[in-house]
């Protein structure tokens, strides 16, 4: 338990940030699964654009590392381009 008011506030902020980050990480995983689960190439490309936008947003906010975002975008783009 926090001994000082500032420590209690910091604990509250950390909890709020953790919940916020967890939400976005869950959303990111869902979007990646949607791209990988797409049946048609045009459908996959549409979802890929949304996913790339989300990955860039998360990297800019510091929720994921920028290299992680770049690796995910590269892998997903190669996956979609290989579809027929």
Structural overview:
This protein has 84 residues and is mainly alpha-helical. It has a single domain (5-82), classed as Up-down Bundle (Methane Monooxygenase Hydroxylase, Chain G, domain 1), CATH 1.20.58.110. It contains 3 helices and no strands. Helix 1 runs antiparallel to helix 2 (41-61) and helix 2 packs antiparallel against helix 3. It is elongated and about 60 Å long. The model has no long low-confidence stretch (mean pLDDT 96).
CATH architecture classification name: Up-down Bundle
Please, how many domains?
A: 1
**H/E element sequence:** HHH
Percentage of β-strand residues: under 5%
Mean pLDDT: 96
Distance between the termini: 57 Å
CATH superfamily heading: Ribosomal protein S20
What is the CATH third-level topology name? Methane Monooxygenase Hydroxylase, Chain G, domain 1
The gist of it:
By secondary structure, the chain is mainly alpha-helical.
Secondary structure: elements and pairs:
Layout: H1 5-37, H2 41-61, H3 66-82
Helix pairs in contact: 1-2, 2-3
Key terms:
85% helix; 84 residues; mainly alpha; 3 helices; Methane Monooxygenase Hydroxylase, Chain G, domain 1
